[in-house]
C-alpha cells in the first residue's frame, strides 16, 4: 500500500526519480486530459453539425412523404 510519506517524498521536478506507479498514474492522467481536450475542441463542433443535419434530414423526409 502507498503511504502518505511516499507521496510527500516525490519530487515533481525530478521525473527520473519518480516511482513506477506514479509514472503510470501521471501517464493515465495526461492521456485522459488529452482525450478530454480532443473531444471538447475537435468533436464538439462536429456534434453540433451532426444534430443540425439530422434535423434537416427529418424535415426533408417529412416533405418527401407529404
From TrEMBL:
What keywords is this UniProt entry annotated with?
Answer: Membrane, Transmembrane, Transmembrane helix
- Annotated transmembrane regions: 21-43
Question: Is the keyword Transmembrane helix in the record?
Answer: yes
Q: What is this protein called?
A: Uncharacterized protein
Amino acid at each position: 500500500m502507498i503511504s502518505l510519506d511516499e507521496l510527500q517524498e516525490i519530487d515533481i521536478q525530478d521525473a527520473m526519480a519518480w516511482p513506477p506507479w506514479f509514472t503510470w498514474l501521471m501517464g493515465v492522467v495526461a492521456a485522459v486530459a488529452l482525450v478530454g481536450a480532443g473531444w471538447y475542441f475537435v468533436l464538439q463542433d462536429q456534434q453540433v453539425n451532426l444534430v443540425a443535419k439530422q434535423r434537416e434530414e427529418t424535415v426533408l423526409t417529412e416533405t418527401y412523404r407529404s
